[in-house]
Amino acid sequence: MASAISLKGLVGLVTGGASGLGRAVAERLIQQGSRVVLCDLPTSQGNEVARTLGENCVFAPTDVTSEGDVDNTLNLTKEKFGQLDAVVNCAGIGVAFKVYNFKKDLPHSYEDFKRVLMVNTAGTFNVIRLAVGLMGKNQPNNDGHRGVVVNTASVAAFDGQMGQVAYSASKGAIVGMTLPLARDLASQGIRCMTIAPGLYDTPLLAGLPEKVRKYLADTVPFPSRLGYPEEYAQLVQAIIENPMLNGEVILALKPESTVRKSFIKEQVFAYLSRQKVAYGNFEVVDFENTELQKHVKSIALCDTDLKLRERKSIDLQDSNLKVYVFHLLDDGPSDEDLGDCDNCSVAQMWSLPNSAFCGIWEHLVFDEEIKGRLLSYAMTTLLFSDQKVNCNIISWNRVILLHGPPGTGKTSLCKALAQKICIQMSDRYSYGYLIELNSHGLFSKWFSESGKLVVKMFEKIEEIILDNDALVFVLMDEVESLTAARKSSLNGNEPSDAIRVVNALLTKIDHIKKYPNVMILTTSNITGAIDLAFVDRADIKQYIGLPSPKAIFQIYHSCITELMRTGIISPVQLMLDIRALEITSYAENDATRLSLQLLRISEESYGLSGRTLRKMPFMAHAMFIRASTVTLEDTPFLTWMISVLLSFYTAFFHLTFS
């Protein structure tokens, strides 16, 4: 597998490098061990910036529209560093005029229009056409790679506003020449990419009034701020390092697209209709449709299990498809404490939908239709609440209890369920929260205080629930820690602290069930230890057992597929899924041999938890493979998985009977 392009020792030329995005890129490259030729106008702060960045940075006074200046810069590059590996074009200007000012009876300045196009478009092209001559003299690596050009366009190229005629035209031209440049230079091993950033905090925006800057920041849904130049520089680094990126335009603010959801739904329906038929879940990240490519990160078809069990294909034109449009948040959990107590964090709160939980739902494998059943329950709960069904006549407590052996996916299922419901209810609730309680943090070293901590925690949860735009999930993992059976805790006539905790918890559960936007998700490995009063409050008590051989096969199949996707197993081999094997009646031939071998390993693995099963490919690689890549054909990777399985059973036997 080809390695990434290393920034260490790389020579980069950055235009507009004295400030803004260009300076951030230069700083980033220097930090990663590159050498940089920093280009900007003689009147800029380029000399001072280069001096600050150290001996690996040299300033070249450059007007990008001047052939002589660019030639001099390239000569300096060759003299100082001997080569040129990357060009990052950040030099640019902008003006803000309508095409005609009817109040002043004044047309847009023709000179200003030409000046913007000259600097932004012609200047970019001028640097590229001369720089690739030097770049083409580099010795190619094993892939034939000699260098990369990264241009800076703007979202204005696609979504220009009033007063941006000149600027949008200049940036649109950069977008338009990206693919032809990539095609022209591909034979020489030189890549060409363009970034179209949104609203970034650069000198171009620094001159705007603070009210205008704040207004622009507020137009970004999340995070509600201007982008940092350092974030742009991170993307430049990723492009340089990834040799597979070529001829594309990346919108730096795609996750914050403000396009109407209804428009995206229409585009997605049209896209799926053109695909006509599906044979199971799938995810698409590349689209021919330019609007989808502009605004959508991926399209995933999910929950097709029922059709597949009936061995039916899915007609995407006639099926009753439901499309949900959502933004994944990248922020991690925030710790929640109770302020005046001496305990550690008592909970972690996640914003939903969150990228940390992306893909969990799709990769959880169960023998029964557990996921669909839980989802149906949750949606019914929210429906009854929205319709204001009298809970004194028809009772439900908003509590789910998942129980079973360790490692079977109970906690993961709770998190995935919360994410799934939040996405499907996005038209009803603007956002969601998952509050993950820390059972140990709710126990005090002071006698009788633990019950008070539980009450305080639920009072904080209630404050969050009062936000009617939020859908709130409370996750209590290993709930037996909080709901131990009270009859086993009795000590004479004095109730123990554990009894107070159970009493407080049951009281608060009864209290918050009146709110329509909350659901309590709980798990347990020791069901017999849970107080019966809590068990009785659970609307659904779902057993999550160990996976069957067919479910194990699906788990292993997803692991092998992931190793192929990442190049650890190479080349990609045909691995049929369980449905395809059933269609072939498990007949062994060249096409089914590897899949049937994996099925036999799955049968030998019966009795292991999902958590253990997903470790097997990792352990096989760690224990038996000394290379970064492995093939399925020439090396017995699947056989090594059997060896790991045997070693696991041996270790388990010694632990159990020693």
Automatic annotation (TrEMBL):
Superkingdom assignment: Eukaryota
Bilayer-crossing regions: 637-657
PROSITE patterns in UniProt: AAA (PS00674), ADH_SHORT (PS00061)
Enzyme Commission number(s) from the entry: 1.1.1.53, 1.1.1.62
Residue span, Ketoreductase domain: 9-202
Domain AAA+ ATPase positions: 396-548
Reactions that this protein is recorded to catalyse: a (3S)-3-hydroxyacyl-CoA + NAD(+) = a 3-oxoacyl-CoA + NADH + H(+); (3S)-3-hydroxybutanoyl-CoA + NAD(+) = acetoacetyl-CoA + NADH + H(+); 17beta-hydroxy-5alpha-androstan-3-one + NAD(+) = 5alpha-androstan-3,17-dione + NADH + H(+); 11-dehydrocorticosterone + NAD(+) = pregn-4-ene-3,11,20,21-tetraone + NADH + H(+)
GO BP, one annotated term: lipid metabolic process
InterPro entries: AAA+_ATPase, ATPase_AAA_core, ATPase_AAA_CS, KR_dom, NAD(P)-bd_dom_sf, P-loop_NTPase, Pch2-like, Pch2_C
A GO molecular-function annotation: ATP hydrolysis activity
GO cellular component: chromosome; nucleus
Keywords: ATP-binding, Meiosis, Membrane, Nucleotide-binding, Oxidoreductase, Transmembrane, Transmembrane helix
Pfam families, per database record: AAA (PF00004), AAA_lid_TRIP13_C (PF23242), adh_short (PF00106), TRIP13_N (PF23563)
PANTHER family: PACHYTENE CHECKPOINT PROTEIN 2, PACHYTENE CHECKPOINT PROTEIN 2 HOMOLOG
Family label: Belongs to the short-chain dehydrogenases/reductases (SDR) family.
Protein name listed in UniProt: 3-hydroxyacyl-CoA dehydrogenase type-2
Species the sequence originates in: Acanthosepion pharaonis
